[in-house]
């Protein structure tokens, strides 16, 4: 095939092969002599009368995840969210913080400043902070298939309202497309960027005859890429195995894709466009398709990286940009533990990481479900806040996935809520026990008898969440929330706790 391909593609290529990535090194998470023991408490939900912490949230608990729900205005951000973030900031965690509203970054900045961490704030905005995540990931040892999975997750997030993600045929075809696009770029010696990938979505030949035609061969940037790869092969710059890959790629773009069923092809192109096109223009191209001035390694140095591409202002682009950061950081978090072990560090010497996501529904993917199962091992604390359960189910597209994720966020804090299914789920999660019921009955005459019966009932019934205090001046800046962690016994002797949390 390579022979045929060489024959009909002609003309020299001008570009030099490059593999740009200025920052590829793993920053030593524990290069400073500090320790973060799992039993160290971070937050006290309640205190004893003498002011000592009674019920705490430790560093170890943070690695098991925190999920916070409550209706809008119930006090999630101003109490639980602020407390978890501030404690982690004070303890020296590296923190990756997503944003939804234009005011979020300022709010987080104020919290960090209050904790003495202003100097560690890194504000990433559409104007500042280059991060070619694709190229960065490749320099961190990810092979093409691992890059494909990263892009698939982004693509699934980009198209989650448009298609059933469980469509296996589509997913398989999409993976194939991405694999060939990434391999072709590598074989042509080009840097891996989202902008470069967009070329394949726009310029692949529409039919086999078009692929043979002079028009496509002379004008299409994809044809130029293939020519460049062939030229490298001719100059002996590709290994035997790479030459075989080039045959596979050529066959894919020139034969397989043009012969694909229209529906499958247009579906792939729509999805790739929805994912790649935003990265190929405007500020997204400027920030994500060049070098990597900022990388997740910052978090290993204890920086607080605030992704100020807030969703309200930047919409889908802002969401995709933050997701790309989050996905790469999750991979980094797992990789750094291996590196730490290799240099002989103890786990508690590895700086903890917090993924702080208010309005987390915008930034959830199915990878979170997987990631959360091993988050403890990567010393990563997921702190996810959202109004209700349906938000999580809608974004993950599947109740089972949602419940699996929530099951792996061990500490759950329920604020005031009037969303029925969330309150029922909260009540079920906390559980049932035998409750005494008093009853009074009349025999019909003037005789009344009193009795008590026992029956199983919710420890915290669904309607209890309706009346929790929501802060504000009318509540003396105090919020109430029910704290639950399976297996925990709290200072009240119960397995759940109603905490009163201050907004100041
Ligand atoms: N320091 C404060 N002083 C007075 N009121 C406050 C203070 N902080 C928050 N509030 C008020 O308390 C209520 C709870 O606010 P908060 O933003 O924490 O809610 P939330 O649960 O995060 O809501 P949402 O889901 O909309 O983000 C709001 O009415 C808010 O205006
Ligand atoms: Mg909030």
Itemize the secondary structure elements and their pairings.
Blueprint lengths: L1 H7 L32 E7 L5 E6 H5 L2 E4 L6 H16 L2 E4 L6 H11 L6 E4 L8 H7 L4 H15 L9 H20 L6 H10 L4 H5 L1 H6 L1 H14 L5 H20 L2 H15 L5 H7 L8 H4 L3 E4 L3 H32 L10 E5 L8 H8 L6 E7 L2 H8 L2 H9 L3 E4 L5 H11 L1 E11 L5 E11 L19 E8 L10 E7 L2
Parallel strand pairs: 3-8, 3-9, 4-6, 4-7, 5-6, 7-8
Antiparallel strand pairs: 1-2, 9-12, 10-11, 12-13
Helix pairs in contact: 3-4, 6-7, 6-13, 6-16, 7-12, 7-13, 8-13, 11-12, 17-19, 18-19
Descriptive notes:
The chain is of the alpha/beta class and about 500 residues long. It has two domains: about 1-20 and about 130-285, no CATH class; about 40-130 and about 295-415 and about 480-500, Rossmann fold (3-Layer(aba) Sandwich), CATH 3.40.50. It contains 20 helices and 13 strands. Strand 10 and strand 11 form a beta hairpin. Helix 3 crosses helix 4, helix 11 (about 220-235) runs antiparallel to helix 12 (about 240-260) and helix 17 runs parallel beside helix 19. The longest helix is centred in the middle third of the chain and has 32 residues, at about 310-340. The chain is elongated and about 100 Å long. Magnesium ion binds near residues 76, 77 and 358. Adenosine-5'-triphosphate (ATP) binds near residues 74, 387, 470, 471 and 472.
């Amino acid at each position: 095939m390579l022979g045929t391909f060489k024959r009909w593609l002609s003309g020299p290529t001008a570009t030099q092969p490059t593999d740009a990535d200025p920052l590829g090194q793993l920053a030593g998470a524990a290069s400073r002599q500090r320790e973060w023991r799992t039993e160290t408490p971070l937050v006290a939900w309640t205190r004893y009368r003498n002011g000592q912490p009674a019920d705490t949230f430790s560093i170890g608990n943070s690695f098991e995840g925190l999920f916070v729900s409550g209706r809008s205005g119930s006090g999630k951000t101003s109490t639980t969210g602020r407390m978890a973030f501030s404690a982690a900031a004070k303890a020296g965690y590296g923190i990756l913080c997503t944003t939804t509203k234009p005011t979020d970054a300022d709010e987080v900045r104020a919290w960090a400043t209050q904790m003495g961490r202003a100097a560690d704030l890194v504000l990433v905005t559409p104007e500042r902070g280059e991060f070619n995540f694709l190229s960065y990931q490749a320099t961190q040892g990810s092979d093409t298939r691992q890059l494909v999975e990263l892009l698939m997750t982004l693509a699934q997030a980009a198209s989650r309202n448009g298609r059933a993600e469980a469509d296996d045929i589509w997913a398989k075809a999409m993976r194939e497309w991405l694999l060939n696009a990434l391999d072709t770029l590598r074989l042509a010696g080009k840097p891996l960027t989202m902008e470069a990938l967009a070329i394949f979505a726009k310029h692949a030949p529409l039919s086999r005859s078009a692929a043979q035609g002079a028009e496509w061969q002379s004008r299409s940037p994809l044809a130029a890429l293939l020519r460049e790869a062939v030229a490298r092969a001719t100059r002996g710059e590709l290994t035997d195995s790479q030459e075989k890959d080039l045959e596979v790629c050529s066959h894919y773009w020139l034969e397989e894709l043009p012969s694909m069923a229209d529906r499958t092809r247009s579906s792939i192109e729509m999805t790739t466009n929805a994912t790649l096109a935003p990265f190929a223009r405007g500020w997204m191209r400027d920030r994500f398709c060049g070098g990597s001035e900022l990388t997740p390694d910052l978090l290993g140095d204890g920086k607080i990286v605030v992704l100020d591409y807030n969703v309200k202002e930047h919409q889908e682009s802002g969401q995709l940009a933050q997701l790309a950061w989050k996905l790469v950081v999750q991979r980094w978090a797992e990789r750094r533990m291996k590196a730490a072990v290799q240099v002989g560090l103890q786990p508690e010497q590895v700086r903890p990481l917090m993924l702080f996501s208010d309005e987390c529904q915008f930034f959830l993917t199915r990878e979170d479900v997987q990631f959360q199962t091993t988050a403890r091992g990567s010393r990563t604390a997921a702190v996810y806040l959202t109004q209700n359960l349906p938000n999580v189910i809608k974004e993950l597209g599947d109740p089972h996935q949602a419940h699996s994720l929530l099951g792996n966020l061990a500490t759950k804090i329920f604020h005031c809520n009037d969303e029925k299914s969330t309150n029922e789920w909260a009540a079920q999660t906390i559980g049932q026990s035998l409750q005494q019921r008093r009853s009074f009955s009349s025999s019909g005459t003037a005789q009344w008898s009193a009795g008590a019966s026992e029956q199983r009932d919710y420890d915290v019934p669904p309607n209890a969440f309706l009346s929790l205090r929501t802060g504000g001046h009318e509540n003396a800046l105090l919020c109430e929330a029910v704290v639950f962690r399976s297996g925990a016994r709290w200072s009240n002797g119960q397995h759940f706790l109603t905490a009163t949390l201050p907004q100041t």
